[in-house]
Amino acid sequence: MESNVQSALQAIEQASDNGALSGSAKENIRVWLTESRYSDYRQTVIDHINDNNWQTLDDVFWTIIPFGTGGRRGRMYPIGSNAINDRTIGESAQGLADYVVDYANGKTDLSCAIAYDTRHQSRHFTELCAGIMAAAGIKVYLLDDYRATPQLSFAVRHFQCDCGIMVTASHNPPSDNAVKVYWSNGAQILPPHDSEIISRVMNCEEIKCMPFDEAVSKGRIEIATEEIDREYLAVSAACGFPGPRDAKILYSPLHGVGAEAVLPLLKHDGFDEVEVYGPHEEKSGDFPNVPGHVSNPENLAVFEAPIQYAKASMCDVILATDPDCDRLGVAAPISLDASMDWDTLDGNQLGCVLTDFVLSKRSEAGDLTPEHYVIKTLVTTEMTRMIAENYGVRCVGNLLVGFKHIAAAMEQEGPDTFVFGTEESHGYLIGQYARDKDGAVACLLMSQLIAELKKDDRSLHDYLGDLQRKYGYHKEKTVSLFMEGSEGMVAMKRLMQAFRDNPPKRLAGLNVTGIRDYLHSTHTDIASGKSTSLDGPAGDLIFMDLEEEGNYVAARPSGTEPKIKLYNFTRLSPTESSDLKHAKQALQERIDALEKDMRAFAQLNS
Ligand SMILES: O=P([O-])(O)O[C@H]1O[C@H](COP(=O)(O)O)[C@@H](O)[C@H](O)[C@H]1O
Ligand SMILES: [Mg+2]
């Protein structure tokens, strides 16, 4: 062994002994220093060791970057098993290619659709993935300009591909990137394919990549952007409903890809007054003009400046999509009187108004049977279920977090009777053309709803208020607690364990009456101490039910960022909700108290 590798190995031993490196980082660095598959990166690793760059080394090596809720996602750094770089992206594509070839069992005309967003290095990683697929004999249909995640999901289905790759880290910070990996049905990978792909990724030895230009000239990469733009427009436009189109819309792509999907769709549907909010228009991985560079419609601050602009230019609504255009955020005037106060809607509220809008249209058309269904996840408001049941359709809702679970439920229940899919984190899907959430079609539905309401002189908040009076006022709030690096992971595990071993007894002045632990599939009744088995999927998600019906909290580690998500759910009955103002205030107080108590518990136990 070369002497510089020898001394680097000694140095990491020492660093681990004196606490500068975690044990897992030391082990992963050792692999990168000694195994031939990492030889291209060896010198850079040694340079970091020689520079005593221990914190960085620990951050980028303490684990092997996992496949989370939405793909393999993380911070970009040239080296590291826990970073996004040519090696981790390359092995992801190689592992996928190897599995697709194995799974095909001799079938030869294999193909993969690939698209990418506006992030730093997205185009670079795209060419790498495309070259790897081409070298594996898998034909690539490439969207060669910035395109939306739902367009990629559609492309996989349209070309009947065996798999797909979307290079994007969605709304994560500018430092991050990722691949979202799709199976032949257009949904992100799930069992049994996911574990098979992951095992090939982890055991990937050599990465074989054909130079991009060569693969294009040999026809192994086909540019499919025009065809997908045209066909996607046709299928997405078919998702809407007839009705008025008079609405003045301000649209923000939050520096991402959305304009390419949203603008043609709204124009085609007859919306003539759509303006792109100028400061958010530039396609840039720095997300320069959104507060804190957090390009996420969940970040209410992104709406502050656009609201001022929209008020001044008399817009009816602001629509914002996240950088890969699979999430929708909305701000709208509270009422259509002269006061012109605006407010945003959260992901659950948007899901409810869209669910009701879609069901009301389908119901008017006599197009619903008891076989029809909407889908939501376990952390999505129960108001969705009430709306669905009111229209006589089913709600499939016992699902883990992640739109891929909604896609799987759709396959299982049968796509023909699928009406709408909705999740708390601003994801919505209508129709069968894709198997992932679609921010563009959500924009279309929202625009149609706004135009209908405008005709009747009603605001979106009036519409939501009617639903809240009918089904009871619901107020939910998701709180994220960031815990970074190897220490953060230990803290997250400790906190999840504390919820299991010693859960809070009271929250917001209400007794905790039951614990639903999806990891161990148990329901524990606090009063009797008895545990029974819990129906539903298995995953690291725990609910604490409170003494008032419909009031509960949930906790889980995010699968896209290093954080614990605390989901707080409150509700009042319809009778208690007749005075909306009063209900709103009461639940705001309860939500604030829940958040305070949950934060305090987390502080003590992480
Ligand atoms: O980031 P996106 O827009 O791809 O969205 C992704 O992340 C969301 C939040 O996941 P988590 O709670 O694990 O962070 C998921 O609900 C969603 O289905 C997934 O596609
Ligand atoms: Mg996204």
TrEMBL record:
<keyword id="KW-0597">Phosphoprotein</keyword>
<dbReference type="InterPro" id="IPR016066">
    <property type="entry name" value="A-D-PHexomutase_CS"/>
</dbReference>
<dbReference type="Pfam" id="PF02880">
    <property type="entry name" value="PGM_PMM_III"/>
</dbReference>
<dbReference type="InterPro" id="IPR016055">
    <property type="entry name" value="A-D-PHexomutase_a/b/a-I/II/III"/>
</dbReference>
<dbReference type="InterPro" id="IPR005845">
    <property type="entry name" value="A-D-PHexomutase_a/b/a-II"/>
</dbReference>
<dbReference type="InterPro" id="IPR005846">
    <property type="entry name" value="A-D-PHexomutase_a/b/a-III"/>
</dbReference>
<feature type="domain" description="Alpha-D-phosphohexomutase alpha/beta/alpha">
    <location>
        <begin position="67"/>
        <end position="203"/>
    </location>
</feature>
<dbReference type="Pfam" id="PF02879">
    <property type="entry name" value="PGM_PMM_II"/>
</dbReference>
<keyword id="KW-0413">Isomerase</keyword>
<protein>
    <submittedName>
        <fullName>Phosphoglucomutase</fullName>
        <ecNumber>5.4.2.2</ecNumber>
    </submittedName>
</protein>
<dbReference type="GO" id="GO:0004614">
    <property type="term" value="F:phosphoglucomutase activity"/>
</dbReference>
<dbReference type="InterPro" id="IPR005844">
    <property type="entry name" value="A-D-PHexomutase_a/b/a-I"/>
</dbReference>
<dbReference type="GO" id="GO:0006166">
    <property type="term" value="P:purine ribonucleoside salvage"/>
</dbReference>
<dbReference type="GO" id="GO:0005975">
    <property type="term" value="P:carbohydrate metabolic process"/>
</dbReference>
<feature type="coiled-coil region">
    <location>
        <begin position="577"/>
        <end position="604"/>
    </location>
</feature>
<dbReference type="GO" id="GO:0000287">
    <property type="term" value="F:magnesium ion binding"/>
</dbReference>
<feature type="domain" description="Alpha-D-phosphohexomutase alpha/beta/alpha">
    <location>
        <begin position="346"/>
        <end position="470"/>
    </location>
</feature>
<feature type="domain" description="Alpha-D-phosphohexomutase alpha/beta/alpha">
    <location>
        <begin position="244"/>
        <end position="331"/>
    </location>
</feature>
<comment type="similarity">
    <text>Belongs to the phosphohexose mutase family.</text>
</comment>
<keyword id="KW-0479">Metal-binding</keyword>
<keyword id="KW-0175">Coiled coil</keyword>
<keyword id="KW-0460">Magnesium</keyword>
<dbReference type="GO" id="GO:0008973">
    <property type="term" value="F:phosphopentomutase activity"/>
</dbReference>
<dbReference type="InterPro" id="IPR036900">
    <property type="entry name" value="A-D-PHexomutase_C_sf"/>
</dbReference>
<dbReference type="Pfam" id="PF02878">
    <property type="entry name" value="PGM_PMM_I"/>
</dbReference>
